[in-house]
Amino acid sequence: MSLSRPVTVWFGPEESSLFGALHMPAVPTRGAVVLCPPLGREYAYSHSTFVQLASQLTQLGFAALRFDYRSTGDSFDRTADRSEARGFADDVKHAVDFVRTTGVAQVAVVGMRLGANFASVQRDTDPVDAVVLWDPCPTGRSFLRGQRALALFAGVRVADEDAATLDLPGFKVSPEMAREISGLDLLAGEPGSVEAGTYSNKVLLLTRSERVADHKLVDRFDLPHVVRREVKGQPELLDVHDDWPTVPAEGIATVAGWLDEVMPRSGSEMAVPNRSEITVEIPSAEPSPSAAPGGGTMLIRERAVWLGPAGLFGIETEPVLGGFGPVCVFVSVANEHRIGPGRLWVQLSRRLAAEGFRCVRIDVSGFGDSPARDGRLDQPVHSISAIEDVLDTTLAVSPDDPGNVVLFGLCSSGYQILEAALSLSARGVCALNPSVKFPPPEMASGGPMDDRRRFCLPVIRPRSAPREPRAVIWLKRRFPTLATKLGRSEQMLVWRSRSVIGHYRNGPGRRLLDLAQAGTDVLLICGPAEMQLFSESGLGFVRRGYRKEHLQVEAILTLDHGLFPARDREQVADLILDHVLGEFHRDAEPAGPAEREAAH
Fold it and tell me: Which fold has domain 7-139+184-262?
């Protein structure tokens, strides 16, 4: 399946615009399909599913709009001075209104999970031609209860000191959002009481067979104009927690096939408004030549970019007069796209742009909106190509001096930026909980580890694990914490022994010191488990706030690996901003018009 480049657009209110990616067919358009994503972790897990669904729809002659609700993804935040009682539903309406401005005659809406609930509210003011409710939440309250349970399972405190704010894994829900979500109820009313035409005369309801509440949904929508089917693959997509989400190919085919069946086949030309970039005001700490009239804010510009020979997708954020100093490059995390944990990359890039920096957040190849280098849709997270992606990005954003960058990454991308920084002699690197201990994909078939891996502690997984002795099984059951510590110590001992005899000549702690000694400004922020790997491989024991020349280490005992809790993201954001502004702010002071003219 070919994944063609979408047209990126911003639409909706000027003060809080929504980001969208419009996939266009190569033939006259049969109609437009608005894709409404879920919220929270479900939003991150389903991103690839919506990319592949959009691509399949274009092959059937439809235009497909993927978009982010305000205060999520790449969209801008809701404004504080407006009532947002229907904020999510209004965002769906903005998306429908936008595709209608392109001249399409037919509009369909596909919503998954809470996205289906938000789409259902759209019926009150403006029914569309077809609606797909894909695994909808029976009620908003049931969604919040499930997310609370997930938060507790992940060790996230559900509410912080401000009890009105709900802290869910990777998503902070404001009181206004919580009220809107809690008010959603698809079960309200008598069975079979959904009136024809309120949603659309064409409705597809996809439910799960294993969920009791979904049987009630089927009864509620028991009407001639509603097609009801059970869909497979949703647990493997959304209920995975720490595992890899699996794209539901059968669900995608069901949605695309039904729309192909019920939507008219006559086509028309589309006229897409030119909104490929946007200028907004962002609060700034200090007045500058590009500040908005009245001071206190900076005018910044965002636009989509395609970088390097692989055509990596990114969002560039910079002051309207252009940024100076090193370019800040934010790399997508694991199998997720460019927004970072809980939108941390989005928030940091806009804040740093307001301070004069040019920032780019990218999807590594095979993830998000970036194509895979080899055409594979199941790219390994620790593929060596991800390091090449970072190197290609630095050359694209700073061609005269690829090392004039500050790299940001978490987990797998934290590892990737360390490897790239060592090759580049980068100006700076901010690595958060870098994942340095993993089985390199190139070793899975018995090959050697790639020479470009210098921070990696390779884990070799046997093809068939031997049966553990009974004593070991008993120890693990009786003393699980002790067994985990002993297992970790044994693995480190094996690594050290192989290093002594020359089997491994690299190590994250030693290489981190090499990187700092070479002049790269290094900020390492880790929890205790991640810090141990650096301490025992050359860095030694360091306390929180350790500083030595170009190296700053922040070891935080309570830091969650994925930064799911909002308090962890806020703490990390403060550390990064203090560090970057302290080290590089002087280089990034925006120039006035005359200086900018001279620079070009």
Answer: Rossmann fold (3.40.50)
* Model confidence at 599: pLDDT above 70: no
- Does the pTM exceed 0.85? yes
- Write out the two tokens for 57: 């729809």
Q: Which residues are bridge partners to 279 per DSSP?
A: 301
The region of weakest confidence among 292-301, 451-460, 490-499 is: 490-499
Dihedral sign, CA of 495, 500, 502, 505?
Answer: positive
Write out the two tokens for 115.
């996205």
Q: 368 — alpha (psi -120 to 50), left (phi > 0) or beta? A: left
Residue 317: C-alpha distances to residues 2, 8, 417, 448, 512 (Å): 28, 14, 20, 40, 29
Residue type, 467: R
Lowest mean pLDDT among 224-228, 354-358, 510-514: 224-228
Q: What is the pLDDT of residues 528-552, one digit of tens each?
A: 999 989 988 888 877 777 888 899 9
What count of other Cβ atoms lies within 10 Å of the Cβ of residue 210?
9
How far is it between the farthest Cα atoms of the chain? 77
How far, CA to CA in Å, does 83 sit from each of 86, 88, 177, 263, 595? 8, 12, 11, 36, 42
Q: Which residue has the tokens 């909106």?
A: 369
Residue 332: how many other CB atoms lie within 10 Å: 29
Phi then psi dihedrals of residue 535, to 5 deg = -60, -40
State the alpha helices, DSSP H only, in 542-592.
566-584
Helix (H, G, I), strand (E, B) or coil at 410: strand
The alpha helices in 188-233, defined as continuous H runs, are 212-220
- Angle (CA) 583-586-587 rounded to 5° is 90
Helix runs in 137-208, H state only: 140-153, 175-182
The reply to whether 7-139+184-262 and 314-456+507-585 are identical in fold is yes
The Cα–Cα gap between 305 and 476 comes to 50
Q: How far is CA 552 from the centre of its chain?
A: 27
According to DSSP, residue 310 is labeled T
Listed in sequence order, the DSSP H helices in 334-445 are: 344-354, 384-397, 412-424
Among 535, 496, 530, 538, residue whose Cα is nearest residue 514: 538
- In a 3-state reduction of DSSP, which class is residue 553? strand
Convert 344-354 to b/e letters by CB count within 10 Å (16 or more is b). bbbbbbbbbbb
Structure-token pair, residue 97: 């209104």
Tokens of 222: 């028991």
CB atoms near residue 591 (< 10 Å): 19
Query: What residues does 525 pair with on adjacent strands?
Result: 432, 554
Out of 3.40.50.1820, 3.20.20.140, 2.30.30.240, 3.40.50.150, the CATH code matching 314-456+507-585 is: 3.40.50.1820
